[in-house]
Amino acid sequence: MLVKILPLPVVLDTNFLTVPAQFGIDVFSEAERILERSVEFILLKPVIREIKSKLKRTGAAESRLFKVALELAERCIIIEIDQSMSDLTVDDQLLDYTVSVNGVLATNDKELRKRAITKGIPVLVLRGKKHLELIGTIF
Questions:
Q1: Which domains does the chain have, with CATH numbers?
Q2: Of all helices (H) and strands (E), which one includes residue 100?
Q3: Share of the chain above pLDDT 90, in %
Q4: Secondary structure of residue 89 in the 3-state scheme
Q5: Interacting residues of 90 by C-beta distance below 8 A, sequence separation 6+
Q6: Does the predicted model carry a pTM greater than 0.85?
Q7: Please, are residues 75 and 41 in contact by the beta-carbon 8 Å criterion?
């Protein structure tokens, strides 16, 4: 019997998409290397709105990070969140959605990372400004 392995959902946070512009790391290929499987990169619609909002509010130097993040967003599957989640913060939406798809959360936000680890969610983080690392276990 042939078993088809589905891609692993990796749910990206805003700050994770700024890593390529900040440190020159291809987070997409690095994630696939670390996770050792096919990956489906996911962005929640509220994360896109957050990136656009930050782009409008930042100066020229920082705006470059968010412009690159928006370009990279085109390589992701954009998910409209369920109406029942719309009252939650973006961080709570990321956590709930990642749990619902049995995925990996990709973030550099320390507080969000701690919350994810507490909930048993595997987290992909930047280590030493040079490579990604997985915290937790994927099944």
A1: 8-135 (3.40.50.1010)
A2: helix 90-100
A3: 67
A4: coil
A5: 14, 44, 46, 47, 50
A6: yes
A7: yes
